[in-house]
Amino acid sequence: MNIYENCPAFENDKYLLRPVSDADLDGLLKVYSDLKAVPFFNSDNCHGDDFYYTTKERMKQALDFWKQAYENGWFVRFSIVDKKTGEAIGTIEEFRRDEKDHFTNCGLLRLDLRSDYEKAEEIESILSLIAVPSFDLFGCGIVATKAFPKAVERIKALKSLSFTLSNEPLIGHDGTEYYDYYELSIG
Q: Over 90: is that where the pLDDT of 84 sits?
C-alpha cells in the first residue's frame, strides 16, 4: 500500500485520525495558538517554523502547505478528531526518513496536541492508533518521536507503548544535532 495514493483513517472509541481538511481550520487554530501547547511541538529541522499560528489566514496557509506536502509525497499530516466533540484537537505528521544517522529507515512522527489533551491517557490512546501501523505504512524499521524532558505526560505515554529514549542524535539537514527522541522498533 502506498500511503500517498490512498491515505487510511484510524479510529478507536475516542479519536479519529484522518488526513487534514479545511474543515479543521477552527479546531486547529485553537491548537496552534495555544501557548501552553507550543512548547511541546517538534520543530526540529523545520526551517525556523515554530508552529505558533494566531490567525485564520496563517492556519489556512499551514493547512494548504500540509495538503501540498501530501500530494508531493513529502509527509502525511493527520488531524486528530475528538469523536465526542467532532473537533480537531491536534495533528500527527509522519514521513519516512532515510538519512546518514541513527534515524534512517525511520517513520518520524510529530504529535501536536491542544494543551488540555496533553495527558498520558489521551496521548496513549492517540498514538496506539498509528504507532504500529506506521511500520507498514512507511516501510520502516523504527518509529521515532520527540518528547522534551518537561513533557512528563507524553513520556509516560510513550513508555507505556514501549518507546525507549534514544541516546543517538537526529542530524538535521544543516548538521544540527537534535536529541530527546523516543523510538519503537520492530521486535
A: yes
